[in-house]
Amino acid sequence: IARLKLMNYNTAYIATPIYHGYGVAVLLLLIALGKKVIIQKGFDVKKACNLVRKHKVEVITVVPLMLYKMLKHNPEDLKSLACIASGGAELNPKLVHETFSKLGDVLYNLYGTSESGLNIIATPQDLRYSANTLGRKIKGVQLKILDEMKNEVKVGEVGQFCIKNRWSMKNKRSSWIETGDLSYRDKKGYYFLCGRADDMIVSAGENVYPADVEQVLRKHPQIEDVAVVGISDEGFGQRLKAFVLPAEGSDLTEVELIEWLRPRVARFQMPKEITFVSQMPYTPLGKLDKKKLRNQGV
Fold first, then answer.
1. Helix, strand, coil percentages, rounded to 5, for the chain
2. What integer pLDDT is reported at residue 21 of this predicted model?
3. What is the pTM for the complete model shown?
């Protein structure tokens, strides 16, 4: 409530599905606060933009894909927004910068899980510090980052998020929830996501995190979005494969992209294959569907 400054606003629009934990939690919170809440069946970008403009919505909950579509459709409809609460999927830094450019400092990044609830929030100021950050943990959250031996890692080292708070599904005081998410914390106390634990691959003895390569590739001016997954390799055990969605009008080639990427990542992080796609698959909740990419072998 405090970090999103919800007491300052009167009208909210929950664009995220009510049947999902994120949507229903925000709905119950806003009802308790006595706020006006706008909801609709399903998500249609044109209807969503019209609702924001018609009701002068100040707060909106979205997954990043929704925000991306709304900004592409008509950012002028979104000028009343003072708090865009994005959650449920990873924020693309390009989307962060586009939101700031078109709407100002109104974007918040929320991190939580179904089991542990909301735990970390990045304010607009935090996202100015780093568009990749999850932000800082909220009051009442105990958070550890543990290695495979269940030991806490040092600052800057990658490990798994383990969380304990008063509002989690496990109500024993001694219960820590293993989220399955890999992350690290920097010296200033900001948290950064490195993907799912089951996304990590071991290539020639090196731990490789697809999310690290994704973050680099997203900085390319001719790339709209990217997904990196692990594939089998006879020589290395596993290698990376990148699925790249080029920006509209791009003439980027695989050879050009490999040459651009080579000096920016370690040798063991270089993808074995790069496949250009016309669209990315998403789950009904707006998360990038890497499982579908792996299974379909796009």
1. 30, 30, 40
2. 83
3. 0.90
